[in-house]
Amino acid sequence: MTKILKVAVSVPLRRLFDYVPPAGTDAADLKPGVRVEVPFGRRRKFGMLMGLADEPEVDRGRLKEASAILDSEPLLSPDDLRLLSWASRYYHHPIGEVVAAALTVLLRKGSAAEWAGERLLRPSTEDLASAEQACARAPRQAALIRLLREHPNGVPHSRLGELDWDWRSAAEGLIRKGLASWCENREADAPACHSAVSPPFTLNPDQQEAIAAVRAALGAYTAFLLEGVTGSGKTEVYLQLTQEVLARGGQIMILLPEINLTPQLQARFRSRFSVPVAIFHSGLTEAERRRSWLGMQRGEVSILLGTRSAVFMPVKSLGMIILDEEHDTSFKQQDGFRFSARDVAVMRARLLDIPVVLGSATPSLESVYNVSQGRYRHLRLPHRAGGAAQPGFRLLDIRGHRLREGLSPALIAYIAETLARGEQALLFVNRRGFAPTLTCHACGWVARCRRCDANLVVHAGDHRLRCHHCGFEQSLVGSCSGCGSEDLRPLGLGTERVEKALGEIFPGARAVRIDRDSTRRKGRLEALLNDIHEGRVDILIGTQMLAKGHHFPRVTLVGITDVDSGLYSTDFRSGERTAQLVTQVAGRAGREERMGTVVLQTRHPGHPLLHVLIREGYSGFAKACSEERRAALLPPFAYQALWRAEASDIEAPRRFLERVANLANQRTSRDLQVLGPVPAPMARRAGRQRYQLLFQSGLRNLLHGNIEALLPRISELDEAKRVRWSIDIDPIDL
Ligand code: ADP
Ligand code: ZN
Ligand code: ZN
Predict the structure, then answer these.
(1) What Gene Ontology terms for biological process does this UniProt record contain (predicted)?
(2) CB 238 within 8 A of CB 322
């Protein structure tokens, strides 16, 4: 009997589909991990061969024949398939959609999996020093030769593309002189040497210890939490570890939040290693993404810098995974297949028996807990590299003070002193736009979004009112739609408003605003950062964007206009997030000899967690906050799963989740709490009514067992057909 193909098809069904092999194909020749084209309903779809079986689940006569096998060799290895199957089970997400998440769009659509390699510009002479001299009168050619000296195996075309000058004519010049030539970087002549350029300093003892610990673990699974304040030299540790992995012939995956994958960081890896570096993030073209993917899958490229979605990418001989800023919420996919790239990375390392390093200045309480349980090994870099000082904190009690657009006289004085010293000040404001609310002074009317339970945000720059949740926008109204009064007032603080106020208070100072609005145009953020680094800026105003990834060595004052909003929120994680944000923003300030000051404006100067944070730093805070969580039996001391449902009417999602709750309660032990259903924190969004239902348990297996048992019954409920529903395992926003 011919074997049956078990195929994962990207549809929202929690199962594989059976096919017979295409005519003329012997199933015995097929290996799981190849793509298969199959008839599906009235259409054709591309799927992934997950396995072969002797007997189908349905009558053999009803089976359809697969149309084609796309790949002669598997795209996904048995290890890759094992990881994806685990993820599908753990996140209770349809396997076909999980597999699709591991492929790029082009590969999902059946495009050929041929790795074209990359053109390299290679030196044609060994004596590059003389060659440089020979080009003394052609400075661009000389610059290219210096680049060739850093990359004796050839400079990748993509690396040249990053140069902001006309390298093409310089390259042609070198080729004409017989000093360089183009070649294809294919398997046969893949670079053999990956010598790294050593750093211009000696590693400090903490760095050496961290590197030694991870090096000793190579070749086996260990999870490390590398806790190091901003500027403590974590990235340097990553570079050294990369070198260790490459020296053993392995490949390495370095995962970062989207915003941290900056050109500077890429440049740091590229200038350190002479091997190609693959990049994978949402800003690339699909062709570029496929190239990075295939380069790692084939083992042609050794270093990957990628974001969340890269965690499932197949890698031929993965030697280590590093995930930086592990506390960052952008590692959690918040729609569709909701996975945590951090947790998947740890599981992947376990399945492959390799080390995984999670780095952060402000580790999540989950990771801190895992350290306390002995699941992760703790490595610390407590000092700033090169001996730079830690910033000092000051709490500013703003009760009873007259604020000028949210700025207290004391904060304004701090800014003035900083500017007088010729240093930079950074103001953190948690909302973008001019003001989060527009209200009528005569009747109290508030501009609301028609489709969401949310206020419209005033954007003064382009005279618009915008909803930050659904994208609705309209022009800024001049009169109240309730009473017609023209006395409309913006309420609350946004970055634009603070920028304007500072412009009035310090008319001579050069201020820049950094938020999603001001950096929308491509290249704009880089240009602004450049101005800041070159000292062409005196005051920086921005949102969380300022708290991530960038270092501002000239900044010596950080002002946080409002810490209170984060301390008093319904989300139990808001305290943790606020502490992380404050610490991260603070860490951007001051470098080397320049000491930074961090000023926090508050109306609750007695808040206990705020005090712990300031007195004992983030670690002390994490300890205290963990104790609160333990007492309240909240994660990480309990496990959660959140059912969400939405529809255009309010009844359907509530009724559906009530059915789910009933089904759960029928079978439940005391160890599973079923909480809800309740309206979602923003009950109406983009015109959809949203409800949620929380499952919580101290026992992870019990929680997952219940969900698994419920899912088949839930899918069959009539109520399920009237809503869009999903399940979120380990949710991070409730
Ligand atoms: P992090 O990633 O923790 O913010 P980095 O690795 O970027 O820290 O290091 C911060 C700065 O200190 C960088 O400019 C880096 O080159 C430098 N640096 C790192 N390690 C050392 C060291 N041992 N001695 C001197 N400078 C160092
Ligand atoms: Zn009015
Ligand atoms: Zn809206």
Answers:
(1) DNA recombination; DNA replication initiation; DNA replication, synthesis of primer; double-strand break repair
(2) yes
Residues 294, 360: Cα–Cα separation, whole Å = 30
Task: Indicate if ligand 1 lies below 6 Å from the C-beta of 553.
Answer: no
Q: What is the pTM of this model?
A: 0.88
pLDDT tens digits along 607-632: 888 889 988 889 999 999 999 999 99
| Pairwise CA distance, residues 261 & 277, whole Å | 13
Q: How far apart are the first and last CA of the chain?
A: 51
Q: Kindly identify the ligand whose nearest atom is closest to the C-alpha of 381.
A: 1
232 C-beta closer than 6 A to ligand 1: yes
**How far away, in angstroms, is 644 Cα from ligand 3 center?**
19
Quick one: how many helices (H) and strands (E) in the chain?
A: 21, 31
Answer yes or no: is 135 a known binding residue.
no
DSSP output for 467-532: -TTT--EEEPPSS-TTT--S-EEEES--HHHHHHHHHHHSTTS-EEEESTTTT-STTHHHHHHHHH
**Residues 393, 559 contacting (CB under 8 angstroms):** no
Q: Determine the Cα–Cα distance for residues 685 and 679; give it in Å rounded to an integer.
A: 11
H/E segment holding residue 389: none
Residue 625 marked as a ligand binder = no
Nearest CA to 441 out of 494, 481, 485 is that of 485
Cβ atoms of residues 207 and 213 within 8 Å: no
Q: Closest Cα to residue 239, out of 196, 209, 208?
A: 196
Query: Which has more confidence, 27 or 677?
Result: 677
